[in-house]
Amino acid sequence: MPGRSRAKLARILPRWLCPSSSPFALTLTSMPAPLVQIDLLRLIVADFRPPLDEWRDWTFTSGSATISVARAWEKEQRLQLLLVAALPLKYRPKVSAENQVFVPEEARRDAEIAAEVAVNLIAATQGATRPLSSPWPPVVLRAQGPEGEAWLSERAGLRYGRLKNWPRLESPQN
Asked: Who has greater pLDDT, 89 or 5?
């Protein structure tokens, strides 16, 4: 009887419900993944000393990350660039119980590394120093299509994993 019940299950259940260890296992290609259509944007301020006038507008691609200049300005004998490291997400990020999107740490780290490589290449070839800093917010998500827009519009905001809610400290009374 067990052989007949397996054969009957194979006819009744869709293949995608069967575990991979079963004799009628599914291949992953038969269940399409939802389109993500969301980019992680890591914002970074690069501060080049001395100012590098010819480096006000550029784009650098490393793997699937694209680093570009969003804004450039001079301040006290240095060139400051607001850089955007854009990385398409492979999966939709996790969402908290409060409907806040967790910043995907691996994608954030990959975008930071790509931006730092680009800035280091420019600084090394031009003989400049290059302190880096982050504006607020340091990371944003950008929709790349209607599915991404719909998904992001349903969320309450971003939750940054490394930030914590610290209780407000009261000043001592004398």
From this structure: 89
